[in-house]
Amino acid sequence: MYIIGMNSSEIRKKFLQFFAKNGHTIVPSSSLIPDDPSVLLTTAGVQQFKPYYTGEANPMTAIHPNFGKPFGSKNVVSVQKCFRTSDIDEVGDDTHLTFFEMLGNFSFGGYFKEEAIRLAYEFITKEMNLKISYVTIFEGLDSIGVPEDKESQEIWKKLDPSIKIRKEEIEDVFWGPTGNSGPCGPTTEIYCTNANGQDVEIWNLVFNEFFFPGSREELLSGTSGKRLEKLKTPGVDTGAGLERLVMIAHNKKNIFETDLFAPLMHALPTLHGGWSARIASDHARGIVFLIGDGVMPSNKNHGYIVRRLIRRVIPHLKLQSLAIIQEGFAPPGHSTIKDLVEKVIEYYGRLDMYPYLLDKKQEIVRVIGEEQERFFNVYNKGNNILTKLINEAKDNQTFLIAGIDIFRLVTTYGFALEWIKDKAKLTGVDLDLSGFEREFKKHQEISRAGQEKKFGGHGLLLDTGELKAADEEELKIVTRLHTATHLLQAALRKVLGPEVTQEGSDITAERTRFDFTFSRKLTPEEIRKVEDFVNEAIRRDLRVEFQEMPYEEAIRTDALYFFKEKYPARVKVYSVRDPKTGEVFSREFCGGPHVTHTAEIGRFHITKEESSSAGVRRIRGKIV
Length: 624
What we know:
By secondary structure, this protein is α+β, with helices and mostly antiparallel strands.
């Protein structure tokens, strides 16, 4: 029985109508593929409105590409489809998702704290008839010169003298900046209680009132010498997760009990609403919406994410069945991935917001079927070996798979570590992951690259099976070639265009080998231009420097990264730049060794350009 009697579709409409009545222009959701090249996917409602906060666009006059005309107001509201890879390992708990819908209201100088808090309070308590458990405010931090947010506290107390207010630190209730600089400010969060008695954050109100000319790490460290600056026009950016709001409104224990997931969970009765059912349901939604926005499965960029989701769902369906579930066959009570995506399309395609999904149904189903067939070619052989290892672990009562066996599955059979973890969890067997990491370290002779390789490395990968840095002199040569390979990728993109993306690299003391996507053979003139670009960067003695930062922040810096890899929570971003002008020649995720100035590299020469595979070219080069 629902507390308020509204389904999720009605809650969406109620949110939009409430803010429309309060002077906001309703703006449709933008694509999951953002216009902003510094980010891979749309992760929040604010992304399509960024130019209005920085002053680059005027909401009263600028034509918004998604809206087709000026907003005619400084205040807008939207229901934005979002996708976050950062939460993929948390999917399966009560609240985390990859794909979700974000309800948000935004103001570009139209109002600030008092109006934003009042509107949120009225919507939650009056329109939704829900009780707020407590709210949070920023406790202040002297080192950055931002005091306690007493203004927000007073506004909340004025609205409701009995409301509970918690003061929290900068890590929790101070947003931004993202990337190397940007707007930032304190936030206030709204918490409600679910049917389990757990307090869940359902709405975050961000008050962008400062600009910081540096990264968040520099802001937190307080040692950069850079100072927060007050924005001329402060702005409001809020986000309320629809799935969490529906969970609270329906008095459910978790998001998977809501009507948003009912069709999918009902299609998986043998999974009993458990971990596998949650992962399959979440990923099925993400797959449909990504393909619906034009993303095709591949080994790079957005396509790698779709492929990863598809190839994770299928094992969860297979592992709960006595038979191999393939297209067109499933034992009674079991669903195929085709069944799941069709239910997603039928459910969301009938809403006013997503009718295009019905038009694309055949294409989406076809793409998933083709990817499933490719998946089985990779999965079945490795899965047979993994099943044998699991049975042996149970028979010998160790209930543990050794690190060397995990390593062989990943490197020899191309079996994803994620699949191994999932199956081990479902079958009650532990994994010696520390042993797995040690196996990777054994294959690394370069000390600075060693620690990062266990995560697949950053950017340019060193194939240490071929790399033999036997002494310090060889290590120096490899270090020079490693940095030169960064310059090579940047030069290829300058000469051939942004369609060039890394497909792999291998560096020894004798040469570098770099594989990249490109549709044809390079001309002699193009090869010469690429080589000239690299050597010009070396001649200019550009500075090589790095920053360590959270992964999600790093992807907003325009840095290149290898889309096939899984990255740690914090990554290093290396930049090759001119210290005089600030011009950046190259910027990439990387954990390998580097020179400090490009002049240390010496002259670079391309020795060969050839085909590596369909649509992939290979360049070999050395230092002369």
